[in-house]
Amino acid sequence: MSDTFAPLGTYYITTFGCQMNVRDSQTAAGVLESLGYVKADSIEDAAILLYNTCCIRDLAERKALAAIGLSKAIKEKNHGIVGVFGCMTAQDGTAKDIMRRMPYIDFAIGTHQLNRLPDLIAAAKEKRRTTLSDEGDAMLDFPLPASYNKPPLSYINIIHGCNNFCAYCIVPYVRGREKSKPMDLILKEAEELLNKGYQEITLLGQNVNSYGNDWGKSHFAELLRALDRLGVPRIRFMTSHPKDLHDEVIEAMAECSHVAKQIHLPVQSGSSRILKLMNRKYTREGYLTLVEKLRSAMPDVGITTDLIVGFPTETEEDFNDTLSLCHAVKYDAAFTFNFSKRKGTAAYNMEGEVEKDVMTRRIMTLIDTIKDLSHKTHASLIGSEQLVLIEGEATKDAAQYTGRIDRGITVNFKKASGKVGDFARVRITEAKANTLLGEEIEE
Ligand code: SAH
Ligand code: SF4
Ligand code: F3S
């Protein structure tokens, strides 16, 4: 920690939550940079501290609050500004509540008003504290500048909000209704990213398949084809809601050579009874039919998922349905969560709470099952040749590069002729728990 005052003019953003938040932080950074601020090397040196929060589960909120608490000491030392935004402070009353409990916070806003950052900072400099609710016109990232991470990976937010109201989920309450970004703006953003040397674009949305629904019908397949024609070397997207994954999207995925053969298709539960209570609007059988369609169109498609255990009333039989579904699908990987009660959602007051130790046992069993399945998938790739976009040095070994194969699995391999941002041909030599090892095939 340095003991000099930070120059007014540096910022540091701490981001919690999903990729949507990562992209929103890039927008916040872009707005700050357009005002002349530069990124601080470390949080201790920053004059503007921003926290982009998440509230998807109780733990996410607790993590964000603990981090924000640490800003008090930094602010005292640097005489800086502390601002909080994102999903946690978009909840009813939360922004006001933390402003009261944490008097060192200068402003708290929700998810929609990053365009107000210049005013908020100006007010904070005059020691005026601001709380903004998310009501009124949503100013999303469409017209705002962004500061992306270094190439080769980038994100474009194509649809904001969510209309689905899954019974457990807070997102529709904190992100508002679906609003699609006009296609010409997406193509322009993609073109700019290509010109700056980005090789991969991940299209983001809570439900990318409903892209365009707010204009009448889904335009997602059309968007994939347009980006493929534009020549984006690798296109990924997340997340897909199974109820909206139409045949046209599967066909576009199969036909567009630049679209990675990877899909994150959260199932949440393998029990049709629980799925109905969750308001997911598909059944176990419907989901398995989708998986069959994906595999027959793209035999090597990588499928990943999200799973919740301990949703109210979940029985051992329901849980076994989840396990058997995982065996049937053979996921490449899965995120597993204990159900967490969120105030304001339909599941908050549901009867039939699952006991904590039952939940723990179930999630451990599920994690083991997923580990086994993904290890089998990984092992089946040994000997195969894969096209890997080199993303950077491996975290544990600077002599190795890391990147992902087309279906999304991470592979590490010894540095050879390729460099960051190149596509390398890699032969898979070994399967680890979460990653692959390989060697570059030199021309
Ligand atoms: N829009 C995405 C999911 C976004 S949230 C989709 O519909 O697939 C990411 C994941 O968090 C969800 O898929 C779900 O598995 C999990 N999740 C959301 N709310 C939760 C809660 N209250 N408790 C536990 N897990 C939750
Ligand atoms: Fe939440 Fe469901 Fe919307 Fe996903 S689709 S963000 S799980 S409400
Ligand atoms: Fe969290 Fe908001 Fe994403 S609640 S998971 S940051 S949409």
Structural descriptors:
single chain; 443 residues; alpha/beta; 5-stranded mixed β-barrel; 19 strands; disordered N terminus; binds S-adenosyl-L-homocysteine; binds iron/sulfur cluster; binds FE3-S4 cluster
Ions, cofactors and other ligands present here are: S-adenosyl-L-homocysteine, iron/sulfur cluster, FE3-S4 cluster
- For the residues shown, what is the average pLDDT? 94
Number of E-state strands? 19
The largest sheet has its strands arranged as 2-1-3-4-5-6
Number of contiguous helices: 13
Distance from first to last alpha carbon: 47 Å
SS-based structural class? alpha/beta
Query: Can you tell me the overall shape?
Result: globular
Biggest sheet statistics: 6 strands, parallel
Strand residue content: 15-25%
> Which stretches are poorly predicted, pLDDT < 50 over at least 5 residues?
1-7
Rg calculated over all Cα atoms? 22 Å
Helix content: 25-40%
Word description of this protein:
- By secondary structure, this protein is α/β, with parallel strands linked by helices.
- It is 35% helix and 22% strand.
- The chain has a six-stranded parallel beta sheet with strand order 2-1-3-4-5-6, with helices on both faces. The chain has a five-stranded mixed beta barrel with strand order 15-16-17-19-18.
- Strand 18 and strand 19 (436-440) form a beta hairpin.
- Helix 7 (183-195) runs parallel beside helix 8 and helix 8 (220-230) runs parallel beside helix 9 (247-255).
- The N and C termini lie far apart (47 Å).
- 44% of the residues are buried.
- The chain binds S-adenosyl-L-homocysteine, iron/sulfur cluster (SF4) and FE3-S4 cluster.
- Iron/sulfur cluster (SF4) is lined by residues 162, 164-166, 169, 171-172, 206-207, 241.
